[in-house]
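thought: user wants a sequence for this fold. calling inverse folding tool.
action: design(structure=
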């Protein structure tokens, strides 16, 4: 069993703490002052307000980073420098300079490992869609569309989360999953992007971004659109969808309905009933697996930064 320290207590830390007592022993946690009491109850370990104090105690095999997005890169790099492997919620960094520092350290210290929580790779429907595309059932993929829509939930979010200066915006905080899925599902690489983002729901909040979209050109001449928004009505929790159109058919994934439907020359709207079993990306990584390898983690974050820059500069990147 590995000893882990936790930095931050934001939403997706549960992907890590689910393995408490199975593959991980939580030795300490460092959270914001308003989260201290919650962390003591949730993690049942010593709690610090400064993660450097926790790291100074030592004896950690790994550090899980799930704090504010604009503070993640510093925590990731500090933990790596202290000799710990790192699991980080997305995004691992919100600027190219931050990402390059992390990449440079990992290149110089091959003994260290990093995982970003690209959790959709472990979900049955998404893995099932990938299997269908990769086995050639749809022919050659020509177009992929990923939609990721959620509610704004302003009253439930910490202030930093809806401030683009701190969160990095929708490409980094949400659509990073979709960009990763385009490459993971199709097996092709994104080579150029054109993007846009904005705020139509509450224009008075100049630091809010509530919608974003990126058009991607892939290395074989195919294309993809990854789009999303935080404007869903409260009557719906989330709406994630994927369409892959190929030369021999197409497939539609509808996560809210837990459905994967395929149309080919021999099938019309066939519902796929058998998909791979769910896999914890954290558990797989701890066991030495490559469901989400380090290269994939770095690649997905880099793509999200490039999409953010393409939207800011209104340039093809």
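)
observation: tool returned 317 residues.
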């Amino acid at each position: 069993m590995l000893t882990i320290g936790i930095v931050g207590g934001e939403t997706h830390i549960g992907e890590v703490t689910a393995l408490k007592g199975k593959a991980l022993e939580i030795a300490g946690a460092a959270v914001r002052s308003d989260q201290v009491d919650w962390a003591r109850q949730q993690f049942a370990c010593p709690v610090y307000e400064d993660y450097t104090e926790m790291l100074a105690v030592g004896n950690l095999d790994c550090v899980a980073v799930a704090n504010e997005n604009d503070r993640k890169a510093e925590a990731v790099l500090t933990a790596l420098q202290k000799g710990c492997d790192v699991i980080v919620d997305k995004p691992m960094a919100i600027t190219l300079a931050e990402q390059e520092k992390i990449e440079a350290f990992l290149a110089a210290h091959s003994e260290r490992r990093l995982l970003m929580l690209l959790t959709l790779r472990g979900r049955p429907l998404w893995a099932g869609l990938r299997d269908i595309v990769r086995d050639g059932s749809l022919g050659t993929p020509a177009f992929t569309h990923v939609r990721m829509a959620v509610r704004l939930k302003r009253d439930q979010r910490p202030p930093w989360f809806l401030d683009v200066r701190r969160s990095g915006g929708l490409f980094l905080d949400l659509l990073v999953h979709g960009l990763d899925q385009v490459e993971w599902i199709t097996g092709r690489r994104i080579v150029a992007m054109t993007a846009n983002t904005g705020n139509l729901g509450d224009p008075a909040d100049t630091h809010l971004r509530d919608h974003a979209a990126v058009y991607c050109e892939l290395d074989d001449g195919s294309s993809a659109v990854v789009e999303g928004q935080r404007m869903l009505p409260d009557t719906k929790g989330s709406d994630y969808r994927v369409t892959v159109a190929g030369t021999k058919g197409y497939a539609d994934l509808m996560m809210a309905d837990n459905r994967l439907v395929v149309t080919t020359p021999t099938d019309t709207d066939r519902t796929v009933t058998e998909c791979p079993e769910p896999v914890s990306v954290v558990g797989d990584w701890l066991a030495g697996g490559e469901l989400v390898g380090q290269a994939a983690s770095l690649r997905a974050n880099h793509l999200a930064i490039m999409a953010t820059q393409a939207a800011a500069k209104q340039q093809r990147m």
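thought: summarizing for user.
answer: Here is the designed sequence. The first helix runs from residue 14 to 17.
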